[in-house]
Amino acid sequence: MLIYIYMMAITAEAMSGALAAGRRNMDIFGVAVVAFLTALGGGTVRDILLGNYPVNWTQHPLYIYLVLGGGLVTIIIARVMRHLHQLFLVLDAIGLVAFTVIGCNVALGLDYEPIVVLMSGITTGIFGGILRDLMCNRMPQVLRHELYASVSLVVAILYLFMLDLGVGENVTLLAAFSLGLLLRMAAIRWHLSLPVFRYSQEQWD
């Protein structure tokens, strides 16, 4: 089940990347690059950092076809994408949880310490969005707007905690997805965010 959710998530993330590229008036190649980095960038960075070779998507060409197809479809249906905004928010939240859980599983399979497992989950969950925004020359939204990276952290902690307690995999996944979706949707609905650090040298002179 998780693999099907993952494929749905990378397609949705690819489409969000394509939209971001379109807002910057990129050509078709630029759209494809941004879509690819948004969807598969988090997992790529994770595998490189963990020394997990070969990188996951190189062993699954279907992921590449899904990502490029998602970018192409976005170009074709761009004029109606605004009507799908709410759907994309839900799919993005599902993707965040799925990427986080998969990132944790990869690190667990490599016998890393719990703190590294947490960082692997978070990196997989948020780094695609960071790469998308950097490519589009804007401050990464996952670090500024409603709770996002912190949702990934909470999901990773819950997932590891329940596994450590010996809870079944299906129940653990259900709990992780339920909590992750609840937190992300609540953050969007009520604009919940972490405290902002503002520093101005003149302020302290």
Describe the structure.
The chain is mainly alpha-helical and 205 residues long. It has one domain (2-192). The chain is built from eight helices and no strands. It has helices at 2-23, 28-50, 61-76, 85-109, 114-135, 149-164, 169-190, 201-204. α1 (2-23) packs parallel to α5 and α2 (28-50) packs antiparallel against α3. The model has no long low-confidence stretch (mean pLDDT 93).
Short description:
By secondary structure, this protein is mainly alpha-helical. The protein has one domain.
Strand element count: 0
What is the SS-derived class? mainly alpha
Strand content: under 5%
The percent of residues in helical segments reads: over 70%
Q: Mind telling me the C-alpha Rg? A: 17 Å
The averaged pLDDT comes out at 93
- Major sheet, described briefly? none
> What gross morphology would you assign?
globular
What is the total domain count?
Answer: 1
Count of DSSP H/I helices: 8
Elements, N to C (H/E): HHHHHHHH
Separation, N- and C-terminal Cα atoms: 57 Å
Low-confidence stretches: none
Membrane topology: Multi-pass membrane protein
Pfam families: Gly_transporter
Family: Belongs to the UPF0126 family.
Subcellular location: Cell membrane
Observed structural traits:
205 residues, mainly alpha
Present the secondary structure layout.
Blueprint: H1 2-23, H2 28-50, H3 61-76, H4 85-109, H5 114-135, H6 149-164, H7 169-190, H8 201-204
